[in-house]
Write a structure and sequence with these properties.
There is one protein chain. With about 90 residues, this protein is an all-beta fold. It contains no helices and seven strands. The strands form two sheets. A four-stranded antiparallel beta sheet has the order 4-3-6-7, with no helix packed on it. A three-stranded antiparallel beta sheet has the order 1-2-5, with no helix packed on it. Strand 6 and strand 7 form a beta hairpin. The N and C termini lie far apart (about 45 Å). The mean pLDDT is about 90.
């Protein structure tokens, strides 16, 4: 019997930069070149941005300064990261 763990469902090689974001563009890369669905939530849990990206960039220039949670989905796998906007 195998136990399904969180790491098995993680996106391989996921990288999100720069963090904190100061110029309005967030870059998201991974080992695969699949399109990614990116959802950004404020600290109250309200979704403030939903985007699909195939060129690894997300425009976050309309977000106010503060902390956010980013949910990234790619090829059926999901991961979450903390994001800071300056």
């Amino acid at each position: 019997n195998q136990v399904l763990g969180v790491k098995q469902n993680a996106i391989a090689g996921l990288n999100m930069y720069p963090n904190p974001v100061s110029k309005g563009t967030l870059y998201i890369t991974s080992d695969s070149n699949e399109a990614k669905t990116v959802s950004v939530y404020d600290m109250l849990g309200k979704q403030v941005l939903n985007a699909k990206t195939s060129n690894n960039t997300v425009n976050v220039s309309n977000l106010k300064s503060g902390s956010y949670i980013v949910k990234i989905t790619e090829d059926g796998k999901s991961d979450t990261k903390k994001l800071i906007i300056q």
